[in-house]
Amino acid sequence: MCICLLMCICVYLSVLMCICLCCVSRWKNWWIRGVLSLAMISGFFMVIYLGPIMLILVVMTIQIKCFQEIIDIGYRVYHSYELPWFRTLSWYFLICVNYFFYGETLAEYFGALVQREDSLQFLVRYHRFISFTLYLAGFCMFVLSLVKKHYRLQFYMFAWTHVTLLIVVTQSHLVIQNLFEGMIWFIVPISIVICNDIMAYLFGFFFGRTPLIKLSPKKTWEGFIGGFFGTLVCGFVLAYLLAQFQYFVCPVEYNSETNRFTADCEPSDIFVMQQYTFPFRVLSCVLNMKTVNLYPYQIHSVVLSTFASLIGPFGGFFASGFKRAFQIKDFADTIPGHGGIMDRFDCQYLMATFTHVYIASFIRGPNPSKVLQQLLVLQPEQQLSIFNAMRDRLRDRGILPPAILKHT
Description:
Layout: H1 2-22, H2 31-50, H3 52-77, H4 86-109, H5 111-116, H6 118-125, H7 127-145, H8 151-180, H9 183-207, E1 211-213, E2 216-220, H10 221-242, H11 246-249, E3 253-255, E4 260-262, E5 274-277, H12 281-287, E6 291-294, H13 296-310, H14 313-325, H15 341-363, H16 368-377, H17 380-396, H18 402-406
Helix pairs in contact: 1-2, 1-9, 3-4, 3-8, 4-7, 4-8, 8-9, 8-15, 9-10, 9-13, 9-15, 10-13, 14-15
């Protein structure tokens, strides 16, 4: 029901955007952009409905496409130099880095599955060494490919590939990390960036007069400020809707018995409704209310929305500067009216990084299931030693019931 409601809201916003685009003759070709926006947003919520596995596959697909678009720009610019192995090595390094990151994810979130499969145990135990060995092989291939007349350009493209990996692959990995913390940490950040894009466009379209930044001449202060307030409202309402459902708020975990991902838990305190007192007396008098009931996550959503609307657009400005440097309009022409996939996700990657840092700094606490997975990897005598230490500590604190103490 909640997903259907979210789809209706996004459809309404997209249709409103389409009407705005179609009603003005100077934007007569932009109806394509509006229709495709509607399709992409609807598809986004359909993927959410299909579950975490599908979301992970979509994120990885988008990552590969974004990587291809950036690498292809360098290839087109320097194609005439016939640099040996440039594209081959670029894709090889992409495979190596993905193996490193997603191997770490496999070890962290699929511990029960790893314990059952001997081949996976070997790969997980020596994962970092294997990753480093694969990278060294690529490094040696690059050195062997150096050609005297192209030294500088080859090192330039080597750096190009690694910066692209840093921007695209690392931050895609953070998107998936956010997903495992709970789907709400995946959905809300992505949705508020989309909302900010729509709100900034609408306010700029109707009220825009003052240019915001030279890198993007069509951006206006009116759109920037209107997008800020619109995003705050959007994030606050969306947080309220999603915080009511375990499916969205519980960490995504792999269930070895059913071989499926589950999101079943006792919601943490930030997803439990609490009563807050208005901080300002004047505000309580105006609203005729002294207290208000909110989910603490709604307060966190204000922080996320503030970042998405004030700092997030700088990801787009950065991409605009990059495209101007190479005198191109879009990263690619994958989506008619929108450009390439990277044109749609330039702000999303910056938002994903902030969300990950925010969770690690202010939200995440010890995870019992992860601790248990680490304990299961230990040798039996090590497990027994930890058991005895925990038993003694719990006994000293008076937590263990007498019935259990008699049997230990």
